[in-house]
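for the writeup, i need someone to sanity check this before i put it in the appendix. the sequnce is what the collaborator sent (i think, or maybe the updated version? ugh). structure was predicted straight from it, no edits. if anything looks off just tell me and ill rerun, i have time this weekend
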Amino acid sequence: MATARARRAVAGYDEDFYAWCLEQARALRRLAAAQPTLDESLDLENLAEEIESLGKSLLRELGSRYRVLLLHLLKWLRQPTLRTPSWRSTIRTQRREIADLLAQSPSLRRRRAERLAAAYAAAREDAADETGFPLETFPETCPFTLEQLEDPDFLP
């Protein structure tokens, strides 16, 4: 029979994978520190690092999804005569994937602004490269709010 702690860990896994990964990594590190004579076949520190990296990969994916979304919104904004169904599809896909990530790991929500800032800087450079416009064509700070980015009906 599962203990209450094990049931909470499984619930956390199902409810917020990002937070679960970070918590499990902390728990493994506490275990390694508390029981240095634990079976040496368990490499607790590296296990903790690997589990933590699973969570961090979700954070990187969120930033990557924002970057692609922002790139296409900037092109949409600055190149109205070149808009294609493919751009609209990419925008829609990125929004769906972002929504899925945030549903799988709600604790990522508090990291969105930080990811957005980094993603926008890269998207701005990519937009300049892809359009051939000078970098200054695109605002230095993101012209879109998180709400606009995640709104399935928003197009600039």
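The first helix runs from residue 4 to 15. The mean pLDDT is 88.
thx in advance!!
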